[in-house]
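Input record (one chain):
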Amino acid sequence: MLIDRYNRVHTYLRISLTDNCNLRCFYCMPEEDYAFMPAKQLMQADEIVTIARLFVAQGVTKIRLTGGEPLVRKDAGEIIRRLGELGMQLTITTNGTRVAHFLDDFTIAGIRSVNISLDTLQKDKFQLLTRRDQFEVVKKNISLLLESGFIVKVNVVVVKGLNENEILDFIAWTKDTPVQIRFIEFMPFDGNQWNSHKLVTWQEILALIGEKYEIEILENHPHDTDKKYGVSGHKGSFAVISTMSAPFCSSCNRIRLTADGKIKNCLFSGEETDLLDALRKGEDLLPIIEQSILSKHKELGGQFSREFELIDANTLHNRSMIAIGG
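The corresponding structure, as predicted from the sequence alone:
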């Protein structure tokens, strides 16, 4: 088992397949002309499977594939199928634009739950946020996933002055559609222009929804990052990921592996551990992984406190979201 100094057992690995993406969301990618990593710098398919197999042998029971956009990678289907053979729960987070091309791969690999990033239900605003005209494609692919029997969770990063006025629209969507909406508090990363005034907190989101709907508290499970809720009579549900206003670090079981093969033992960690270089040198990876987990900070990467109003995003040391994998 992979256990840190605070007796947290790590059973969940998030693997970024690429830092590339076919959208340009501002909170994820700092600029339009982003310099993506060269292919030789990325983990290759065999390397991803080798590292994943080692983590599974150490007790990892769930792997989530992320990006950038994981499905823009040319060998994404092969990687998905091969990871599906390792005998753990496999999931994926995607922007939804290329999902239709990978339904067979998802099924073969045993993926049953897909997270879709979608921050607006307005076509014009989607183009403004992503700088791409793909809204109808994403909505169509969400419907396709639901019709094909997949669990669909829709990730919505809520930013004040941008899309908080759509929160009730997303809740209305759950009336007749069995989607799980996950409202995510806006978090600080390199180049995303974060400040506390743009944050819409968990409490504010609940208060807004509660003005119109009677909210039901749903069951949460150990290590859940989202707080789950429902509305009576709605086929879908909603949740809030309260990273900034109510962090859940004490129960964290997550490890992140960037597309260039570096461990981030926390989303906000300023330190990284290079697994890919060690693998290519033929070194034993397990002691390196164990040391990375042992060095994990108690909360929030050791970079800031729970008093989010005091955070100066310019002093944080981290990558952009697209380079981390979320």
